[in-house]
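STRUCTURE:
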């Protein structure tokens, strides 16, 4: 094991869009001339409330309806996207249609003038060339998970909490005090040499390491990805003929380093010999570019469309809708997402489907084998089952921080249900959404009250506080039987306060630094660090949209750092405004034409900072 030790000296020296409403917006009064001021804000000559142009997407609307103190953005989504430096990606994505995705803070805006569109498009064209040179989505300069964990004494969720992530099911006994061989950076030799280090602390895929010989001295402790290519089990250097050289700082601490290592490592644990092979195998993904799938239509929740896999990064798919000629109408999700299905799924269960204008498959495109998709639990619908009109509580896919009063609108085959949010449904049912009967996103009547969660009542319902008994009597409805809901609670391992990387389901191309702030059985409240609680999202403990600390670094995906204090102050309203109740925040974002779910906003550009690994 220690034959690789080398005591040589060191004398030598040695980097969304939503579909526009079919209803025409009322034109502005001709008696109110509009003046463009500083290229962004429109005001009336008398200086009173006028119009404003969103600095993110170019949407023009009533200034008072805009978000933040400075009225620079039309919605929360644009505010956050701007702070993430994703302006280039979002401008063209929103120019594909003439509407703007609604958010919980958004109001109905005036339709965007053609001149504003052209200006925004010209700006996008000017930046298109830069995109070819630098394809970074958001700069994370200055953010480091290790420093963030250390400086705040945070704890990260263990890799074993994420069964869908690489090594999630084969992490083994990797823990503190496990020894590994890593490059010796405290060295001035011209060639790469290695030394043995022990794990001091784990944070997801990352480990805080300390070189052997430093004892209790943390001066040279460093963070390293356990799944990195330069980390090996003890004995690898001996087998590979690589030299083990003690760090320069402690080189003269011992005269017999080989004897020191034998004493220190006897009985110690190290990585399995096939660890790197397991890492590589766990990062092979069955989905490939050019595969065809059925995926939810981001403009109409109630139906699906055909899309083609454009790229695969860490198991996350960039899907491009088949009818998109310029391949910019895309959708991001994980390969295990409940939002994607095999070709023919919609027809088999009776789900709405938008037929493609393309009569035959394009060359090279082929249907994804059905066995690659996530399986749902089989259910027996022959006995007591869900019925149309039954009431329940459900996470609103348009506002993921809320659980709302909802109704089963249609019962499909294989246990699937079409659900609508009471008080906010479109007359044609175009904003109904599909959940499986075993989905962890639907709950029996009374779930929120029992677990002390604020239930969002139907919009316009004035008999507050909301009481289910009264509401059922007034509407002549019945509650869905409790026994029909999923009661399974896995031993997920999450704890309040744990750090992780989470998809912002309001803009799913983004993965952000996040914290688990509440746990209700299998339901997790995810908070995005640096942002107010109103951006929080309810997510299932087994959601494929949650990842261990270090996942982005491992896969080459771009991580969004916590929002800084200055960016929050410049983009957010006053603290008093932020303390509005959930019902006040729940604006009329589901009116006819406002059908794009916030969890499905998409981006035009790749979020990878380096070339994705081969599949």
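SEQUENCE:
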């Amino acid at each position: 094991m220690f034959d690789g030790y080398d005591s040589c000296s060191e004398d030598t020296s040695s980097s969304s869009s939503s579909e526009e409403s079919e209803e025409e917006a009322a034109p502005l009064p001709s008696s109110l001339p509009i003046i463009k001021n500083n290229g962004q804000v429109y005001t009336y000559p008398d200086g009173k409330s006028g119009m404003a142009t969103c600095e993110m997407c170019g949407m023009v609307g009533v200034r008072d309806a805009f978000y933040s103190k400075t009225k620079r953005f039309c919605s929360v989504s644009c505010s956050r996207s701007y702070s993430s430096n994703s302006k280039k990606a979002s401008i063209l994505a929103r120019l594909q249609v003439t509407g703007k995705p609604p958010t919980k803070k958004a109001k109905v805006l005036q339709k965007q003038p053609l001149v504003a569109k052209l200006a925004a498009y010209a700006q996008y064209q000017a930046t298109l060339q830069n995109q070819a040179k630098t394809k970074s989505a958001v700069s994370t300069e200055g953010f480091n998970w290790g420093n963030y964990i250390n400086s705040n004494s945070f704890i990260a969720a263990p890799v074993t909490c994420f069964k869908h992530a690489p090594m999630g099911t084969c992490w083994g006994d990797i823990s503190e005090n496990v020894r590994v061989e890593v490059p010796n950076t405290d060295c001035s030799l011209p060639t790469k040499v290695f030394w043995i280090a022990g794990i001091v602390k784990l944070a997801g895929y990352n480990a805080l390491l300390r070189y052997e010989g430093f004892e209790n001295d943390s001066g040279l402790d460093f963070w390293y990805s356990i799944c990195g290519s330069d980390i090996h089990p003890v004995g690898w250097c001996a087998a590979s003929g690589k030299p083990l050289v003690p760090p320069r700082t402690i080189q003269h601490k011992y005269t017999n380093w080989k004897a020191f290592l034998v004493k220190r490592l006897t009985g110690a644990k190290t990585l399995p010999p096939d660890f790197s092979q397991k890492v590589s195998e766990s990062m092979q993904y069955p989905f490939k570019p050019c595969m065809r799938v059925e995926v939810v239509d981001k403009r109409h929740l109630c139906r699906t469309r055909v899309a083609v896999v454009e790229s695969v990064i860490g198991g996350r798919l960039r899907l491009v809708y088949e009818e998109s000629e310029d391949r910019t109408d895309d959708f991001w999700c994980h390969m295990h997402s409940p939002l994607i299905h095999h070709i023919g799924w919609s027809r088999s269960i009776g789900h709405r489907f938008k037929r493609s204008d393309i009569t035959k498959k394009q060359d090279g495109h082929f249907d994804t084998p059905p066995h690659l998709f996530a399986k749902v639990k089989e259910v027996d619908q022959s006995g007591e089952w869900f019925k149309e009109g039954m009431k329940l509580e459900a996470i609103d896919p348009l506002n993921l921080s809320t659980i709302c009063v909802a109704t089963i609108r249609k019962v499909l085959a294989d246990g699937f249900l079409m659900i609508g949010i009471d008080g906010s449904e479109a007359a044609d049912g175009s904003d109904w959404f599909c959940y499986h009967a075993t989905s962890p996103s639907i709950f029996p009547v009374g779930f929120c009250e029992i677990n002390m969660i604020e239930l969002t009542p139907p919009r316009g319902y004035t008999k507050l506080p909301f009481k289910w008994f009264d509401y059922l009597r007034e509407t002549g409805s019945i509650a869905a039987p409790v026994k029909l809901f999923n009661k399974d609670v896995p031993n997920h391992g999450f704890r309040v306060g744990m750090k992780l990387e989470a998809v912002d389901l309001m803009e799913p191309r983004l993965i952000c630094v996040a914290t688990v702030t509440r746990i209700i059985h299998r339901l997790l409240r995810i908070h995005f660090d640096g942002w107010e609680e109103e951006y929080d999202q309810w997510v299932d403990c087994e959601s494929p949209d949650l990842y261990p600390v270090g996942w982005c670094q491992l896969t080459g995906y771009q991580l969004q750092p916590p929002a800084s204090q200055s960016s929050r102050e410049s983009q957010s309203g006053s603290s008093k405004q932020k303390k509005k109740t959930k019902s006040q925040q729940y604006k009329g974002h589901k009116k006819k034409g406002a059908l794009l779910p916030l969890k499905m906003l998409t981006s035009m550009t790749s979020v990878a900072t380096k070339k994705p690994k081969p599949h």
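REMARK: Confidence is low (pLDDT under 50) at residues 7-49, 85-140, 568-615.
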